[in-house]
UniProtKB/TrEMBL annotation:
Superkingdom as given in the UniProt entry: Eukaryota
Protein name as it appears in the record: Uncharacterized protein
């Protein structure tokens, strides 16, 4: 899953 709310970058984030 990629972070889209915490940062519109495309790095793997723990936020589903």
């Amino acid at each position: 899953v990629y972070d889209t709310i915490g940062g519109l970058k495309g790095e793997e984030c723990t936020i589903s």
